[in-house]
Amino acid sequence: MLTFDSCGVDHSFRKPKKNMNLLSPRPWLAGMTSALLFLGVLGSSEFVYPQEAQNRARPNSGPRSSEIELLPVQGNISMLAGAGGNITVQVGKDGILLVDTGVATMSDKVLEAIRTLAKRQVTYIINTSDRTDHVGGNENFAKIGSPLAIARAARASVFIIGFSTILERMSDPSAKPSIPEKAWPNDTYSVPQKNLYFNGEAIQIFHQPGTTDGNSIVFFRRSDVVSAGDIFDPTEYPIIDLNKGGSLQGVIDGLNRLRQMAIPADHMEGGTMIIPGHGRLCDVADLDIYQQMVTIVRDRLQDMINRDMTLDQVKAAKPTRDYDPIYGSNSGNWTTDMFIEAAYKSLTSGGRGKK
User: Is residue 168 within 8 Å of residue 119, measured between CB atoms?
Assistant: First the structure.
């Protein structure tokens, strides 16, 4: 079935099947990538998917089960899934490094899984954002370690690295709920890039404003693995926190940066592996699909804004309807309407659009 808009552009394509398998790339990636290239900027035209399909989207708060999975990635990098946000684990002779720590209630199971890789101390934690499903375990890991034998951290049991605005928000006395001091970053950076050498591997930490103004991307150079945080979350639309400096364009800039960093192997699969904020292990082909989706949605919204459409009119036009069966939700902490509103406001002057 062909669906044309008022400009005569065909926007129909076959509905891909959801597959959240954590290990294997989706078999329809190549076809989906080609199909996405035909999608253009839409105004208020109708789309091909029924509204009821959105109701199949997952709830998006907290861990989905009480079990976690430990998955080898490549090099000395593993991924822990199921503890809230994904956790990247690097192990070696110097100790253990984590990117994010999941929710606090899963810390015991996270530690149990890590112990199957190594019995060493967690020396570094890198926080990609200050969301509770990424920093919730900080305090628990800070409590279990012995003081590090390094002069500049005589009293610290773990280095917690984060962009400076993460510390500002976590240490804010007016924050509700308040966050214990042991969970705060104690090794912040405020420059575009921070470098680290640990377990025989160069690690680059890039500041990349996206869902907030404090996001970080972590690149393990020898293992060729990128920990992307919530800038890349193939399970849902980007969670744009306007109050913390997030923006739709910032997310796109981050996705474009990831695309420049990641190098695919044969047929766009393999090569650089990407650990997203949530969901399964990804490669460049997965990133391409998400990057194109967010870019197309941005272009549709910008076209509507240029035609002086109000937020209510944009919502009524359903500019994401063809993507909602994959990324949308009518319930939970982050709904499709919330995404459209945040994206619309981030594209309009001063972050505020017409009601």
Answer: no
Confidence class of residue 146 from pLDDT cuts 50, 70 and 90?
confident
Question: Could you tell me the two tokens for 333?
Answer: 């902490």
Q: Are 333 and 60 in contact (CB under 8 A)?
A: yes
What are the two backbone dihedrals, phi and then psi, of residue 100, each rounded to the nearest 5 degrees? 70, 160
Cα torsion 47, 323, 211, 197 to 10°: value is -150
pTM value surpassing 0.70: yes
| H runs (alpha helix) in the chain | 29-36, 107-115, 132-135, 138-144, 164-170, 248-261, 284-306, 311-317, 324-327, 336-347
Contact between 303 and 42 (Cβ < 8 Å) = yes
All residues at 6 or more sequence positions from 328 whose CB lies less than 8 Å from its CB, including other chains: 54, 57, 236, 237, 320, 335, 336
In angstroms, the CA 138 to CA 163 distance is 15
Cβ neighbourhood burial of 7 (10 Å; 0-12, 13-18, 19+)? exposed
- Rounded average pLDDT over 260-276: 92
pLDDT digits (tens, 9 = 90+) for 84-114: 999 999 999 999 999 999 999 999 999 999 9
List where CATH 3.60.15.10 sits in the chain.
69-284
CA terminus-to-terminus distance, the chain: 35
By the 8 A CB rule, do 329 and 55 touch?
no
- For the segment 217-252, what is each residue's pLDDT rounded down to a tens digit? 999 999 999 999 999 999 999 999 999 999 999 999
Confidence of residue 38 (pLDDT cuts 50, 70, 90): very low
Q: What is the CATH number that goes with domain 69-284?
A: 3.60.15.10
CA–centroid distance for 78 within its chain = 17
CA dist., res. 239 & res. 236, Å (int): 8
Closest listed residue to residue 130, CA positions, set 242, 229, 274:
229
Give the per-residue SS3 of 182-196: HHCCCEEECCCEEEE
- pLDDT tens profile 114-144: 999 999 999 999 999 999 999 999 999 999 8
